[in-house]
């Protein structure tokens, strides 16, 4: 089967990885002919590269990450044209049987529709963000604005046109059906987030603590994107409430559009137990968080859409217990409880968040057991081979 992946964030297969690279390589490992289209603002011209034996069509685009929302919006709207041109030039001679594309962004729906029509291919949608409603929740877009209606129309068409939709959780499924009643329930199913299993997770290299000046510290890590959706104010308030614990340090590891604001708030409130490290290579990132003590999750309290934060993958993979601050729309709390891998409270309830922190801080056995449970949940549900089998089972059922 010839499979085309229309991707948005897709690191070089030889130097990095994320859930989508893992899925692409799993299809390749199972003897499918795999092709990938992905943006690359840093190259001089669009080109095909061989990465780990897979054809990656890197398309020269405008910046798509860690840029102001206006520029990101322009980049996303322009992306389909750039993909069309690249497909015609490089892949016009190939007949695809399957197209796989994620949300975000919603704009990749346009090339997906066209290729599906050209090739009579199946379209598999990996639903990871429910856009544009998430932008409305965060105050980035007005509910009945022209731009909202434009994207909402594309979203509805994408759900109708996709042959199958892999959702992160049951709440995702119910949300889509409630707000899109014409969508056939049978095309919706759960496809968990996924990541390559780290087989050396238990071999914690404590020397890395010295490399990052974290020796003799109890490290609470918040890894990944630092955007409005993460409501980092919750993390800062928790850090402030722990300032009398001399060994505790909060490690913010990553970057995003809210990083400068976060730094400013840290300075304004003179919060002295926070350390910020910008994005580092993925393997190094996992090596570092493996010696941390707690993995933090923070979701914005205004969300009306259910989210399952992908940073959980690294925490579970590396055996960290999770401390979560969540909105009331998500079923991430059920997810965490099912795994028995962490403690949660509702965003804005700082007393409850601090109480949960203390439970983990003062009970090393609880941290150990929850970290182990998260790892076991990962092995059972979150690996690439499981995701691949899930997709193929539903594709085969859809053909019958």
What descriptive keywords fit this protein?
single chain, 14 strands, 8-stranded mixed beta sheet, alpha/beta, 15 helices, 400 residues
Which helices and strands occur, and which strands form pairs?
Elements: E1 2-6, H1 19-29, E2 33-39, E3 47-51, E4 54-59, H2 69-90, E5 98-103, H3 109-119, E6 122-127, H4 133-137, H5 146-161, E7 164-167, H6 170-179, E8 188-190, H7 207-211, E9 218-225, H8 233-241, E10 248-255, H9 259-268, E11 274-277, H10 282-289, E12 294-298, H11 312-317, E13 322-326, H12 332-339, E14 342-346, H13 350-361, H14 364-381, H15 384-399
Parallel strand pairs: 1-2, 1-5, 2-4, 5-6, 6-7, 7-8, 9-10, 9-12, 10-11, 12-13, 13-14
Antiparallel strand pairs: 3-4
Helix pairs in contact: 1-15
What is the global morphology? globular
- The termini sit apart by 17 Å
Strand and helix order: EHEEEHEHEHHEHEHEHEHEHEHEHEHHH
Q: Residue share in helices? A: 40-55%
Beta-strand share of residues: 15-25%
Class from helix and strand fractions: alpha/beta
**Number of DSSP helices?**
15
Q: Give the uncertain stretches in residue-range form.
A: none
- Alpha carbon gyration radius: 21 Å
Q: What spatial order of strands do you see in the largest sheet?
A: 3-4-2-1-5-6-7-8
The description of the largest β-sheet is: 8 strands, mixed
Total beta strands: 14
Protein model, in words:
The structure is a single chain. By secondary structure, this protein is α/β, with parallel strands linked by helices. It has 15 helices and 14 strands. It has helices at residues 19-29, 69-90, 109-119, 133-137, 146-161, 170-179, 207-211, 233-241, 259-268, 282-289, 312-317, 332-339, 350-361, 364-381, 384-399, and strands at residues 2-6, 33-39, 47-51, 54-59, 98-103, 122-127, 164-167, 188-190, 218-225, 248-255, 274-277, 294-298, 322-326, 342-346. The strands form two sheets. It has an eight-stranded mixed beta sheet with strand order 3-4-2-1-5-6-7-8, with helices on both faces. Strands 11-10-9-12-13-14 form a six-stranded parallel beta sheet, with helices on both faces. Helix 1 (19-29) links the parallel strand 1 and strand 2. The longest helix is centred in the first third of the chain and has 22 residues, at 69-90. It is globular.
């Amino acid at each position: 089967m010839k499979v085309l992946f229309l991707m948005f964030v897709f690191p070089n297969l030889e130097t990095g990885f994320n859930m989508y690279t893992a899925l692409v390589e799993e299809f390749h490992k199972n003897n499918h002919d795999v092709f990938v289209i992905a943006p690359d603002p840093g190259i001089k011209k669009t080109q095909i590269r061989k990465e780990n034996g897979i054809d990656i069509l890197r398309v020269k685009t405008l910046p798509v990450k860690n840029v102001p929302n206006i520029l990101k919006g322009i980049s996303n709207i322009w992306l389909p044209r750039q993909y069309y041109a690249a497909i015609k030039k490089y892949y016009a001679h190939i007949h695809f049987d399957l197209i796989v594309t994620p949300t975000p962004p919603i704009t990749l729906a346009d090339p997906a529709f066209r290729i599906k029509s050209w090739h009579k291919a199946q379209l598999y949608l990996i639903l990871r963000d429910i856009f544009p409603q998430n932008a409305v929740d965060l105050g980035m877009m007005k509910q009945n604005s022209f731009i909202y209606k434009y994207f909402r129309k594309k979203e509805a068409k994408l759900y109708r046109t996709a042959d199958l939709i892999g959702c992160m959780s049951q709440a995702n499924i119910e949300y889509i059906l409630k707000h899109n009643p014409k969508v056939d329930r049978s095309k919706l199913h759960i496809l968990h987030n996924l990541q390559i299993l780290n087989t050396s997770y238990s071999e914690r290299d404590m020397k890395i603590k010295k490399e990052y000046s974290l020796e003799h510290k109890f490290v609470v890590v918040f890894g990944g994107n630092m955007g409005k959706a993460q409501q980092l104010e919750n993390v800062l308030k928790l850090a402030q409430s722990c300032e009398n614990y001399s060994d505790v340090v909060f490690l913010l590891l990553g970057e995003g559009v809210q990083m400068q604001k976060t730094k400013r708030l840290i300075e304004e409130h003179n919060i002295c137990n926070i350390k910020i490290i910008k994005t580092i290579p993925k393997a190094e990132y996992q090596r570092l968080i493996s010696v941390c003590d707690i993995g933090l999750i923070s979701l914005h309290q205004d969300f009306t859409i259910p989210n399952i934060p992908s940073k959980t993958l690294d925490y579970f993979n590396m055996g960290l217990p999770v401390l979560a601050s969540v909105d009331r729309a998500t079923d991430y709390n059920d997810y965490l409880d099912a795994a028995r891998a962490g403690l949660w409270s509702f965003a804005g309830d700082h007393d409850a968040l601090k109480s949960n922190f203390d439970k983990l801080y003062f009970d090393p056995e609880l941290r150990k057991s929850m970290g182990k449970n998260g790892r076991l949940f990962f092995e059972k549900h979150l690996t690439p081979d499981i995701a691949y089998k899930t997709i193929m089972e539903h594709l085969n059922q859809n053909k019958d």
